[in-house]
C-alpha cells in the first residue's frame, strides 16, 4: 500500500544533518524540517528503522502525517520558497 506522508522533525543539532540526509533519500525536502512524498509500506518501515537508529528518543521528535487520500493533497505557499540553507547538510 502506498501513502502520501508529510514528515516534520525537531532534532538536536548534533543529529540534524544525519536525519536530514536520511529523509532526503525517501522524500522531497520542502523547507527546513519539512519533507513530503509518496512511500510504500516497505519504504516507510525502512525509513523509520533508519531514523530510530540515529535519533535520541529522549530529546528528538519525528512526526509522520499520513494523508487519507490523494484527493486531499493540495499545497500552496506565500512568498518565495526556500532553496538553500547554510546550517543543514
Automatic annotation (TrEMBL):
CDD domains reported for this sequence: Cas2_I_II_III (cd09725)
Any one Gene Ontology molecular-function term assigned to this protein's record: metal ion binding
Record keywords, A-Z: Antiviral defense, Endonuclease, Hydrolase, Magnesium, Metal-binding, Nuclease
Binding site for Mg(2+): 10
Taxonomy, superkingdom: Archaea
SUPFAM superfamilies: TTP0101/SSO1404-like (SSF143430)
Gene3D superfamilies in UniProt: 3.30.70.240
Co-factor requirement: Mg(2+)
InterPro entries (alphabetical): CRISPR_associated_Cas2, Virulence_VapD/CRISPR_Cas2
Keyword Metal-binding set for record: yes
GO biological process, one term: maintenance of CRISPR repeat elements
EC number in record: 3.1.-.-
Quaternary structure note: Homodimer, forms a heterotetramer with a Cas1 homodimer.
Family per record: Belongs to the CRISPR-associated endoribonuclease Cas2 protein family.
Function: CRISPR (clustered regularly interspaced short palindromic repeat), is an adaptive immune system that provides protection against mobile genetic elements (viruses, transposable elements and conjugative plasmids). CRISPR clusters contain sequences complementary to antecedent mobile elements and target invading nucleic acids. CRISPR clusters are transcribed and processed into CRISPR RNA (crRNA). Functions as a ssRNA-specific endoribonuclease. Involved in the integration of spacer DNA into the CRISPR cassette.
HAMAP family xref list: Cas2 (MF_01471)
Name used for this protein in its record: CRISPR-associated endoribonuclease Cas2
Source organism: Thermococcus siculi
Gene this protein is translated from: cas2
Amino acid at each position: 500500500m502506498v501513502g502520501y506522508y508529510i514528515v516534520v522533525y525537531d532534532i538536536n543539532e548534533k543529529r540534524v544533518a544525519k536525519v536530514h540526509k536520511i529523509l532526503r533519500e525517501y522524500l522531497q525536502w520542502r523547507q527546513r524540517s519539512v519533507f513530503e512524498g509518496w512511500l510504500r509500506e516497505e519504504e516507510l518501515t525502512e525509513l523509520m528503522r533508519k531514523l530510530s537508529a540515529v535519533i535520541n528518543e529522549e530529546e528528538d521528535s519525528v512526526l509522520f502525517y499520513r494523508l487519507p487520500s490523494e484527493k486531499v493533497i493540495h499545497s500552496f505557499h506565500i512568498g518565495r520558497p526556500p532553496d538553500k540553507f547554510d546550517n543543514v547538510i
